[in-house]
């Protein structure tokens, strides 16, 4: 007996289709795809068998740096009076911080500070929110654990604050950094090194810029000129204007020590890189380049991808769409799955307004608008610019099918792309129903034999067109 689509009137024989699993926040769901659908995935990398031991070894043998204990010892002050600030990532990065987690990196750092004589009341944790919304008390509890939030002071960075420390001019722009962080005697940054569509890779210097800088610095880091630069791309550090600017800002902030991690496709800890700001980060980037980069020989007609745990809102989901650019062509259909379970599932009010303007202006008209001297820089304006780059490659708004269950249908209708809700003739459909019908819709449109791929780990996979086709 033929298996039919869920809600389409005309059925498609799914008997010979294969089942795949797609990550959706804290669970997976299954759908079927044509048997010839290619699975693009990272090279296998095993998680660390003993994370706590690996974290200890990384802290004991830092890269191009003294140990934390030695940094403290060399300060011309009694440890009891030394102040320490630790920069941590916000809820858009799944960094394993939790003290109850065997893979948690924050408690080992805090324990070393304590053993070296640093008082808890002299230790500050700064959440590098950049231009993102402040993190909630519940998120802090989940991310760091009850003991840490009860015993240590934790603050969120505010890029609009008037109480920021001036660092001088960087590329003609007055740059300021979080004053509470800067005023500490010792500065430690932490983060996750993963692919990044603008800065090449996250982690390292990004903990400072854009994590803890003023809005004016962010305007440069995310400005139209930087965003249009061909080197502002995944896994590119050389001649990347975003990387160069952020690194200069971080160096002026006097980073004493860094601790960054890398994860595999299952979000398991695969490496800890502690030590000097630049060298430790470069080694982490070299490592992720080894297993995240995948070469393909030609473009695809249909690509199914997802945003992983980091797509807390539509703003963050851009990463998944951008990741398909190297292997799509005009007319390709991209199906994007994003959980968007943030309290604001689309993004800031700035972002929502700019996306409406982007849609109203039409493809090809957004970048000239924000480059016009009369345009006043608006927070989040860089995101529609990158969305435009994606849609120009795909050829039309309708060639993105956006699948989520956390943005209301009426709100999703206002964003560029085809709403997955419109493909299911049922109120409040499940995500697997939306995505399955999106695949069927794409197959109907492009043909049963169209070339299709599923990007198993979403934007964490860096697709590269092979040069010999």
What share of the residues does DSSP label as strand, in percent? 15-25%
Tally of domains: 2
Average predicted confidence as pLDDT? 93
| CATH C-level name of the largest domain | Alpha Beta
- State the low-pLDDT regions, or none: 1-9
Question: Which structural class fits the helix and strand makeup?
Answer: alpha/beta
> From the 3D coordinates, which CATH architecture of the largest domain would you assign?
3-Layer(aba) Sandwich
CATH topology of the largest domain: Rossmann fold
According to CATH, the homologous superfamily of the largest domain is LarA, N-terminal domain
Major β-sheet annotation: 6 strands, parallel
Structural summary, described in words:
The structure is a single chain. The chain is α/β, with parallel strands linked by helices. It has 2 domains: about 20-35 and about 295-465, Alpha-Beta Complex (2-enoyl-CoA Hydratase, Chain A, domain 1), CATH 3.90.226; about 50-290, LarA, N-terminal domain (Rossmann fold, 3-Layer(aba) Sandwich), CATH 3.40.50.11440. The protein is built from 16 helices and 20 strands. It has helices spanning about 50-60, 70-75, 105-115, 135-145, 145-150, 180, 215-220, 225-230, 240-250, 275-290, 315-320, 350-360, 365-370, 380-395, 410, 430-445; strands at about 20-25, 25-35, 40, 85-90, 125-130, 155, 165-170, 175-180, 185-190, 195, 200, 255-265, 270-275, 295, 300-305, 335, 400-405, 420, 450-455, 460-465. The strands form 6 sheets. The protein has a 6-stranded parallel sheet, sandwiched between helices. The chain has a 6-stranded mixed sheet with strand order 6-5-4-9-12-13, sandwiched between helices. Helix 3 (about 105-115) links the parallel strand 4 (about 85-90) and strand 5. Helix 11 (about 315-320) crosses helix 14 (about 380-395).
